[in-house]
């Protein structure tokens, strides 16, 4: 009644919209005038969300409105899957027409149109957001913000439980109206205080690509950025700046996941000191939604059919038997060598490790001792109990001291009573930069000895100079890496994890939405924006063609022949750290490796084929033994050609022994071969040793070797003096 009586009178000094802006932003009026903001309240469940999209459709946004439509449609598609009871409203600003309740009731708020009032999300709203109007006026985002806030307050009120959110998408490049009284900062602060009092959260996505203009335009942008920052200071608000359509797709959190604690209890420093903490998941992989089996066997006339599929398993002694084994006739068995050891359910229960819920500090260590690749699972965040002031102080003191001394904490964790496994992890300090956010820890699971996989590789220092890049090749490679830098200094970092959507998930949601409208819908082509996630940027490659050509011309490129389906590695269950082929991630084509003898014609090829056979581990020893005999036979031949061939075979034998981690066999044979050359006066073969610098296999190339690196390097077979005949 107050608003209506006020605007029923003509005011010659100011327009109704200007005066309304003053009244709306006035702290006394906005915070104490209850009607009409609290009329028509409707209940909302705690786990539902009321969302109002505030979309800028002014001329400056026309070039990216297609991407805005795509982003919002993906958001609504996910809500239909995960949060089908959420309610959504849509407000656009920058339109020629004005269509909102505040404008009708009290005037003002021009060029703001409500496309959809707050209702439960459905397929209609998905279609609506795909056809946004193209406005002709530079819109005022503050007007749209007040309209959206008014819609939420009238719909839910301040006392209703649930989640209320405003999502603003704009470039924030258009001027806002000046207030009738006071400053814009005071107005924004008042709006933010009202939002905080009503429990309304705000998310602003500001598109900034190719921003250019005069000084006045830059001042407008700077002022709007300042106003948006004020919302973050006085309310629960966040502003994200993006530069590309891809970042826009990932900036809007399309699925709302409520934080749930996985642990609430004590962080035990010692038996006399315990800190109350809560543990949340910080990062968790987003998977495809669970698909349920559907049965179409129910009669079409049955409206109450659930179309469920039930699966029953029957256990029989043999497939042909008709007798079904009862649960008490079955028992679990575990393989132990060639036997199967039966273990009953009671024995399994007794065998379980009994644990008690809690986190216990084991000690501190240097942060450099915990390598990044040790992190095994999802990251958790450990925060102090918000209701315990002493816990907040204690966690802050420990976290800040750990950061100052560059230390991390090792803790033993059991998240719940009766948990089957114990977790050992590392706490990394997370010191907050905000006064209203307490300090905390990041928690990562660490591996046990059985979890670590070691992959031994030969040292690059042992390779000949011809295998190493020269200075020119290294410079070309450096330029290639710099060319593909995803974080150039003058631009936004590309493929930021927090702004990069999963293309597999997004494509699934898009296709599911199409299938919901037509069961015969064809799979659409991959969107160009998602191709930039999965493929190298073609524009970047074409603009740097000289660098690509230089890289291609500096290295010899050979075609890698396609192998047939590789044999399943039989050493898969070998323990960690064993020097086997599985640890070196090598697979062999066994369909062609049926050579069983090192012959005279192609001894090197035969040797390589034999050691690559995996149908029996004895083939390695057979191949090495036969290659030794072949080398000795070639050395004993006095011809120069055979000496060259013997040396090639010797180098192939050395390479194979390094690959198969058999250094002792090669080192013993090399010593024997040297003694044989001395006894037989084979000076021509000794000269080959000198030229090729044949050495023993040191520890750096094979862990089982008993030869140190310096001894292997000094082992140069000396050339014998030429004997007079």
From TrEMBL:
Biological processes annotated in GO? DNA recombination; double-strand break repair via nonhomologous end joining; telomere maintenance
Q: What class of enzyme is it?
A: hydrolase
EC number(s) on file: 3.6.4.12
The residue ranges flagged as biased composition, category Acidic residues, are 703-712
- The UniProt record lists the Ku domain at 322-463
Q: Which GO terms describe its cellular component?
A: Ku70:Ku80 complex
Stored SUPFAM superfamilies:
C-terminal domain of Ku80 (SSF101420), SPOC domain-like (SSF100939), vWA-like (SSF53300)
Q: Which reaction does it catalyse?
A: ATP + H2O = ADP + phosphate + H(+)
InterPro entries from the UniProt entry: DNA_bd_Ku70/Ku80 (IPR006164), Ku80 (IPR024193), Ku_C (IPR005160), Ku_C_sf (IPR036494), Ku_N (IPR005161), Ku_PK_bind (IPR014893), SPOC-like_C_dom_sf (IPR016194), vWFA_dom_sf (IPR036465)
Please list the GO terms describing molecular function.
Answer: ATP binding; damaged DNA binding; DNA helicase activity; double-stranded DNA binding; hydrolase activity; telomeric DNA binding
Does the keyword field hold DNA damage? yes
User: Where does the UniProt annotation locate this protein?
Assistant: Nucleus
Q: Where is this region: Disordered?
A: 702-725
Q: Which UniProt keywords apply?
A: ATP-binding, DNA damage, DNA recombination, DNA repair, DNA-binding, Helicase, Hydrolase, Nucleotide-binding, Nucleus
Q: Which PANTHER family match?
A: KU AUTOANTIGEN DNA HELICASE, X-RAY REPAIR CROSS-COMPLEMENTING PROTEIN 5
The family this protein is said to belong to: Belongs to the ku80 family.
> What is the recorded name of this protein?
ATP-dependent DNA helicase 2 subunit KU80
Q: What is the lineage of its organism?
A: Eukaryota, Viridiplantae, Streptophyta, Embryophyta, Tracheophyta
């Amino acid at each position: 009644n107050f608003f209506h009586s006020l605007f029923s009178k003509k005011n010659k000094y100011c327009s109704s919209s200007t005066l309304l802006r003053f009244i709306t932003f006035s702290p006394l009026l906005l915070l104490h005038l209850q009607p009409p903001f609290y009329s028509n309240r409707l209940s909302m469940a705690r786990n539902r969300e009321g969302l109002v999209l505030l979309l800028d459709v002014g001329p400056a946004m026309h070039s990216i409105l297609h991407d805005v439509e795509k982003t919002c449609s993906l958001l609504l598609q996910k809500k239909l899957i995960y949060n089908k009871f959420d309610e959504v409203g849509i407000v656009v600003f920058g339109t020629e027409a004005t269509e909102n309740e505040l404008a009708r009731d009290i005037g003002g708020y021009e060029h703001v149109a409500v496309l959809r009032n707050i209702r439960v999300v459905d397929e209609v709203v998905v279609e609506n957001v795909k056809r946004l109007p193209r406005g002709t006026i530079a819109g005022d985002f503050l007007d749209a913000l007040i309209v959206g806030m008014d819609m939420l307050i009238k719909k839910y009120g301040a006392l209703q439980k649930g989640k209320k959110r405003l999502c603003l998408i704009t470039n924030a490049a258009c001027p806002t109206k000046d207030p009738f009284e006071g400053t814009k900062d005071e107005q924004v602060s008042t709006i933010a205080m009202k939002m905080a009092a009503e429990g309304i959260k705000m998310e602003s996505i500001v598109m900034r690509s190719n921003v250019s203009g005069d000084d006045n335009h830059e001042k407008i942008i700077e002022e709007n950025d300042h106003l948006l920052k004020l919302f973050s200071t006085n309310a629960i608000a966040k502003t994200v700046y993006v530069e590309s359509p891809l970042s826009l797709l990932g900036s809007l959190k399309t699925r709302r996941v409520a934080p749930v604690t996985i642990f609430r209890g004590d962080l035990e420093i010692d038996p006399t000191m315990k800190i109350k903490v809560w543990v949340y998941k910080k990062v968790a992989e987003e998977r495809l939604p669970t698909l349920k089996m559907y049965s179409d066997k129910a009669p079409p006339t049955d409206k109450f059919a659930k179309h469920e599929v039930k699966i029953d398993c029957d256990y029989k002694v043999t497939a042909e038997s008709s007798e079904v084994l009862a649960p008490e006739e079955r028992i679990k068995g575990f393989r132990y060598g060639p036997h199967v050891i039966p273990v009953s359910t009671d024995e399994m229960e007794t065998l379980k490790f009994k644990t008690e819920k809690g986190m216990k500090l084991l000690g501190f260590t240097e942060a450099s001792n915990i390598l990044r690749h040790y992190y095994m699972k999802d990251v958790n965040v450990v925060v102090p109990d918000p209701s315990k002031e002493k816990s907040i102080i204690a966690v802050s003191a420990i976290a800040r001291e750990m950061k100052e001394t560059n230390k991390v904490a090792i803790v033993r964790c059991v998240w719940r009573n009766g948990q089957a496994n114990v977790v050992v992890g590392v706490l990394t300090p997370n010191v907050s930069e905000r006064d209203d956010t307490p300090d905390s820890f990041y928690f990562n699971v660490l591996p046990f000895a059985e979890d670590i996989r070691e992959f031994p590789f030969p040292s690059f220092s042992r390779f000949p100079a011809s295998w190493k890049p020269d200075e020119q090749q290294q410079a070309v490679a450096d330029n290639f890496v710099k060319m593909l830098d995803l974080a150039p200094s003058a631009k936004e970092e590309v493929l930021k994890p927090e702004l990069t959507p999963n293309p597999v998930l997004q494509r699934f949601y898009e296709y599911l939405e199409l299938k919901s409208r037509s069961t015969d819908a064809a799979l659409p082509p991959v969107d160009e924006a998602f191709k930039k996630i999965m493929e190298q940027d073609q524009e970047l490659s074409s603009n740097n063609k000289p660098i690509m050509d230089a890289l291609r011309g500096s290295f010899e490129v050979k075609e890698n022949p396609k192998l047939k389906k590789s044999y399943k590695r039989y050493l898969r269950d070998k323990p960690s750290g064993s020097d086997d082929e599985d640890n070196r991630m090598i697979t062999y084509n066994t369909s062609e490796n049926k050579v069983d003898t090192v012959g005279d014609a192609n001894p090197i090829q035969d040797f390589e084929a034999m050691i690559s056979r995996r149908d029996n581990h004895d083939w390695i020893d057979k191949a090495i033994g036969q290659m030794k005999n072949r080398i000795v036979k070639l050395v004993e031949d006095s011809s120069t050609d055979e000496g060259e061939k013997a040396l090639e075979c010797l180098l192939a034998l050395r390479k194979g022994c390094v690959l198969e981690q058999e250094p002792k066999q090669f080192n013993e044979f090399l010593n024997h071969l040297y003694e044989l050359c001395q006894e037989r006066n084979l000076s021509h073969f000794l000269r080959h040793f000198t030229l090729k610098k044949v050495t023993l296999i040191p520890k750096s190339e094979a862990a089982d070797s008993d030869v140190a690196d310096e001894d292997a390097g000094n082992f140069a077979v000396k050339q014998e003096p030429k004997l007079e005949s």
